[in-house]
Design a protein that fits this description.
11% strand; eleven-stranded mixed β-sheet; alpha/beta; 2 domains; two-stranded antiparallel sheet; Amidase_CS; 19 helices; hydrolase; Amidase_dom; Amidase signature (AS) enzymes; EC 3.5.1.4; 610 residues; AS_sf; globular
Length: 610
Amino acid sequence: MPETWQDVAKRKQDERTLNIPKEWLLSSKPSPNLNAVIDVPRRCGILHENELAITEKYDATDLVRKLANRELSSEEVVTAFCKRAAIAHQLTNCLTEIFFPLALSRARALDKHIQQYGTPVGPLHGLPISLKDTFAVPGFDTSVGITSLTFSPASQPSTLVITLLNAGAVLYCKTNIPQTLMAMDSVNRVFGRTLNPLNKSLTPGGSSGGEGALVAMKGSVLGVGTDIGGSIRVPAMCNGLYGIKPSVGRVPYGGQENAALSGSGRTGLQASAGPIATTLRDCGLFFKSVVDSEPWRIDADVVTGSWTSSDPSSQGFSNSEPLRIGIMHTDGVTTPLPPISRLLNQITETLRSSSKVESVDLDLISLTKPLQSLTNNLLYTDGGQHKFDLLSRTGEPAIPWVSQRMKPSPPKTLEQTRELHARREKAAADFLSVWSGAHLGLAPESSPSRDTPNDGTPAAAGVTAATWINQGLPSSSTSTPTTKPLDAIICPVAPHPVPPIERWNATGYTAMWVLLDYPAGVIPIRFFRAADTKLEIPAEQQAIGSWDRENRKLWEGMDRSVYVGSPLSVQVVVPRLQEAKLVRVMGVLEEALASLREGERGGGGERSKL
């Protein structure tokens, strides 16, 4: 009798359980009534004092320095995180593939190297790094939670895996995802559901939800996820972490399993890989280490240039002048619920007193409102048929999220795809006016602009054949730009707080930046407070559509106490391929908004402080 999909899933789960050493198993599971498990690793007795210090006291930036100086050995650091990852998994079901013995063997080899030669292998020497299940690691499955892809170990590594190993990293586990990767909860029929360690009744996010839960539990000091609609940023928000989605081509992406036919991503939206971490500087460490490893030598799609060459100092970023930050309060499709609106207002008010930031309110609805339907269409240019074909091979049913939101359909025609990309090109061109400041429509501060005649009459639209030769040349009178360009945009990650399991509503606030290929990062600001539950939607505020009506259900008629203690975060966005600028802007904003985080603390020690 042939194996059923249930048989395959059980066999895979049994294999995973056997890969956890018996001495690392919890003697008893916490009570089902314990909603937050974030502190269990510290209390369970499995971790020694030095292992608690390694996993809680230091971030990745601290650890690589101590490893390079031989203050810590890679073996003891990797052991600590393997043990804590095993504990985190038993509490949240966050792991898929476990290869602790191989990780420890590599750690010992790295220790031997630095003892013999006195120098680290690379910038990530001896640092344990976890990976989303989509990355191929030779000898292990890349099943992405689909039974037909199990027990088929990879033979070739993903290009980012090669890059990380060349930089000296130690890879030790892979993390859970949703079936088909196209859901905002990390649940599948092979490995089951990942839980949010801060509150098990809330979602950990998707599709890099396993990474988010593992990093939040301090079972990883630096994780790598992927993002095509919010899959790094959503788990970062749900777990109170930092996460950055770069532009396509900044980080190697080759050799991934996406539950799609090879090359199909080229016809629609392309995903990118990026870090999830407990500190912003660790995100910078990841990017600098990867980019300066010259990954374009092994991945033809990666842009060339060192991290230093993409530094904001060469992109109009000056430490002597205040940043100009635009605050986008709504996308025009789903209006943020009261606690999210309040958070944005608090940020606006706080930035007004900062000497390092100048903030302006942005009304971008005319630009952002059309992006949601365009994004959804470009996400499914292949019709999703291959994903359902993979499920049908074993008779595996789709999870509810997928069955309710995705139906296999014929691939879009060449003409349909061309038309979608034409709309995308126009949207990207239109958005340039936002970065230049022209969208704000501010009047010139001094002399006339270059496109305004000296007699005060409006300039003619476009450039005529008679005048194009002088285009861009200064006029006889000294002129200045009419507006100061924006350095970044702040907006919600979602129009709602971290929702209960299976209740994530809208991806528009994250997916639009994939459409435009802008780097976007998440900064945790503070925790949801009991006082926030008392906020109400203004009586005169009407729902603006079906998405907005669904969004309001997460507030009206809800037991809002479920949100108390969950993280509140915002998203920061910069122009395409300016990741170095994004990291520095986020650093300035983090400092400027520090007062909003005073007195905030979650579980897991100093590094969990928001």
